[in-house]
Design a protein that fits this description.
Elements: E1 2-5, H1 9-19, E2 50-56, H2 62-73, E3 79-85, H3 88-98, H4 112-120, H5 129-139, H6 142-146, E4 149-150, E5 153-154, E6 157-162, E7 164-169, H7 170-175, H8 188-195, E8 197-198, E9 204-209, H9 219-229, E10 236-240, E11 243-246, H10 251-266, H11 277-282, E12 286-292, H12 294-302, E13 308-311, E14 315-317, E15 319-323, H13 330-343, H14 346-356, H15 368-373, E16 385-387, H16 395-410, H17 420-440
Helix pairs in contact: 1-2, 1-13, 1-14, 9-10, 9-16, 10-17, 16-17
């Protein structure tokens, strides 16, 4: 665990959310009534000391939080922020135990889906009116705004966004005679075939496209979903308000599975035995793959000489983490929201991106100055069709079980090659399990 006392940390938390927005072209947050009128947000020498605690599951953001805390302290010397960061899985367990027991930090970032149960239980506070108005002012895409609200009331402040882009090795593309990265999902197989490297015996040495073929949890399913989204598909589809059905046992789902099968078993442009994902890309063992923006900063450290670029996807499955404020202490709550206002300033949002690699959820910022130092970020700020996790408590179970079927059968069965009926039967069987889970939860569209 990383633990530090810093007055601007809380700021850091909001800054994250704001940071995602941060840009010289963004809108400034209007002053909050009461924030500078002698209350906990007053920075005068006579203001009562206030201590605000912040927990996060993102230790890589610690340097940014420290910077934000120091800058905020200059304007609010009476406020001290205690920031503690934990490995993400440990953080999730800690939050799950602490919020119901009412001994969590004052500011706790989490996904909107997870926060829903705590909001419904009255354990998280609604945001002040000015914050809700700012969030809905055009700073964020509607899909983001919707995920900050419950029953039309704002509770969350957008913190960080996860999204994918195509990472490609420029030298490997040039060697293969390819002037540009793949422009659409329809070119993925073609590029993978041209870029894969095999030895004299035909054994694969370098993957064309590195696929997520295995791994714990729902990650396999998420990566499949992002490729599926390029064809307009999803994991589940809302048929009527609150009612869903599986949406991958379709032509789009079949074409997506077929691409995996053809790459692994027919044309052998990827192999489960090879290194995969970011390690493969950074070491030159894969020509391109789809991954989130935090790879940019990781590559700066681990492969600083790698000649690579990014290209946007047509569609994106994005994840969102919001800041939430809990507790019942009025002074702490006022200070917490004030920190979050500070963090949403454009310059703080951009600072978060350039220091951590995480994306700001804001869509109104001019990021050109960030692009000068890190041109790879441009692949993440294109206009796209967006999808997010649906508001279903059972969705993680759905995605995890589907991922397990893909990893143990869908991607490993070589008999699927050139057998469309077998692949469609596999998808129908998986979709039945998805629909059974939805039915048990009362969310199946029948």
């Amino acid at each position: 665990m990383s633990k530090k006392w810093v007055s601007g940390t809380l700021v850091g938390i909001l800054a994250s959310s704001a940071m995602l927005a941060g840009c010289s072209g963004g809108k400034e947050t209007p002053p909050q009534a009461g924030a500078g009128s002698g209350g906990s947000g007053d920075g005068s020498a006579n203001a009562k000391p206030v201590e605000v605690s912040v927990w996060t599951g993102y230790p890589e953001l610690d340097p940014w939080f420290k910077k934000m805390a120091e800058e905020y302290k200059k304007t609010k010397p009476n406020v001290t922020i205690q920031v503690s960061s934990f490995p993400l899985r440990d953080y999730e367990k800690k939050v799950a135990a602490a919020i119901p027991a009412k001994n969590a930090a004052d500011i706790v970032p989490m996904s909107p889906n997870l926060a829903l149960r705590y909001i419904q239980g009255g354990l998280l506070q609604a945001a002040p009116d000015d914050i809700g108005q700012q969030i809905g002012s055009g700073m964020y895409d509607k899909i983001i705004v919707d995920k900050t609200k419950v029953d039309n009331k704002t509770y969350g402040v957008p913190f960080i966004k996860g999204a994918g882009a195509i990472f490609y090795n420029k030298d490997m593309l040039k060697e293969a005679g390819l002037a540009e990265p793949p422009a659409s999902v329809d070119q993925f197989l073609e590029y993978a075939q041209k870029l894969a490297k095999k030895d004299a015996s035909g054994n694969l040495e370098k993957a064309g496209m590195s696929l997520r073929l295995s791994g714990g949890g729902s990650g396999v399913g998420e990566k499949f979903w992002n490729i599926l989204a390029q064809r307009g598909g999803s994991i589940v589809k809302e048929i009527s308000p609150g009612k869903f059905k599986a949406d991958y046992n379709t032509e789009a789902g079949y074409q997506t599975l077929k691409m995996y099968v053809d790459m692994v078993h027919k044309y052998k442009t990827d192999d489960p035995k090879l290194k995969h994902d970011t390690e493969a890309f950074q070491t030159g063992l894969a020509a391109f793959y789809i991954r989130e923006s935090n790879v940019i900063m990781d590559t700066k450290t681990k492969a600083p000489n790698l000649n690579y670029g990014t290209a946007p996807l047509k569609a994106n499955v994005i994840s969102l983490v919001n800041y939430y404020v809990g507790g019942t202490d009025k002074a702490k709550a006022e200070a917490s929201w004030d920190f979050l206002r500070f963090l949403t300033k454009p310059e703080n949002q951009k600072s978060m991106v350039s220091m951590s690699g995480w994306l700001t959820p804001r869509s109104d910022l001019d990021m050109s100055d960030v692009y000068k130092d890190f041109p790879q970020y441009q692949g993440f700020f294109a206009k796209q069709d967006l999808q997010m996790y649906p508001d279903l408590p059972e969705f993680d179970e759905i995605l995890t079980k589907f991922a397990d079927k893909l990893a143990t059968k869908g991607f490993t069965d070589a008999s699927f090659v050139d057998q469309p009926e077998k692949m469609k039967a596999f998808l129908n069987e998986a979709a039945k399990e998805t629909n059974d889970i939805l039915k048990k939860a009362g969310h199946l569209a029948e």
